[in-house]
User: Fold this.
Amino acid sequence: MKIIFIILVFVFGLLSCNNSKNFSDISQEVSYSAKKSHPGKTLMENKCYVCHSLTAAHDNRLAPPMIAVKKHYINDNTTKLEFTKSLKAWVKNPNGVDAKMFGAIRRFGVMPKAEYSDEVITQIADYIYDNDIESPKWFEEHYKNQKGKRN
Assistant:
């Protein structure tokens, strides 16, 4: 009985050695996932979320969440190029005249001028435009209550 058990363990051991392809497949899947991570997402998380926090409570915010920015800047007729130009103009020279979020200006003031390169802003804009942006838990109810109000 012990001999049969040892033979079975040996056979299964040999068969498992041929599974090197599986490790390669897993490696390729991991690198594919890593490639799928958009650089604009990382830039937004590291640069924008400092003030436009995803986790800050409604009453403790420094700036509106990025989902609010997306909803105010992009509608059904907005092209990616138009959005990118608007975002670049705002980030490079924020001011009350060109604002699209008047409620945010009243509550938080005009954001400080950011010294980000065109490439950084373009990558962030590209990510925002093409992807679903996470929203704070309270945001959907707040957005429904504010919709239709000129803010």
Observations:
- The helical segments are 2-17, 20-36, 39-48, 66-73, 80-92, 102-108, 118-130, 139-146.
- The chain has two domains: 1-36, 38-146.
- The mean pLDDT is 82.
- Residues 20-36 form the longest helix (17 residues).
